[in-house]
Amino acid sequence: MKGHFLTGEELSRDDLVELLDRAAELKQGRERREAAEALAGRSVALVFEKPSTRTRISFEVGVAELGATPLVLHGDELQLARGESVADTARVLSRYVHAIVIRSGSHTIVSELAESASVPVINALTPTHHPCQALADLLTLKERFGDLDGLRLAYVGDGNNVARSLAILGGLAGVEVWIASPPDYALEDGHGTTLTDDPQVAVEGADAVYTDVWVSMGDEAEAEQRVAALSPYRVDAELLALAADRAIVLHCLPAHPGEEITEEMLYGERSAVWDQAENRLHAQKALLERLLG
Fold first, then answer.
1. How far is CA 130 from CA 28, 92, 193, in A?
2. Whole-angstrom distance, CA of residue 227 vs CA of residue 168
3. Which residues have a catalytic role annotated?
4. In this model, does residue 80 exceed pLDDT 90?
């Protein structure tokens, strides 16, 4: 695998299997610093247009643990904010760094950056895709259940970037993905998954039940109508009771307990949310190592 990582569709099934296996190895060997010099002498630009906790910290720490230098850049610190083109920014950054990681409010900007960059570009998050999160989610499922083939994952709530990336990468991994959303917030393309407006149907017999916030950054103007439409999709004990006895609860965070998920589900013994958050680090290290190796 070479090139960019923008949607996850760049991967073959073999690529994905190898990435997840390597991520597991890196997690096990973290204390021994087994990959400490894997990217020695490299530099990686980390561009963030919006505030970030998990994405920024996991990438910054991951780059450093691989022996490279992370350069954290905010949108208002670049000439992009003063009208320099995305293409010119890509050309310049490519002369300085060995990869560009970008979290942007526009998938178009990320695609344009990749078109003009001569180094790998990684989509850390856009409004339409969140493939790095999906890698961490699959690693979490693999840890809990072993083989991914045939697992059933139910995503309930807004058909957003997380849902789309789960559909793409989950399907590639052999996971049976069901996505339940209100009609006005459903994915237009299920990428081979099963789409429904009934959360109970989606969750029936599922091995994992996944949700995300109802009001993401940029959605504040329609917060009231979103909450009204998505309230029937809350992950609570009643909904989880329909899943398999071994089912785990997933959430990509940040969470709003009492809205999309109850405190009991988020912090309870069936929650894998904190492993999921940690696994962003290991999955992204494997991705960086593979793209830059």
1. 25, 25, 17
2. 26
3. 103, 130, 133, 212, 252, 280
4. no
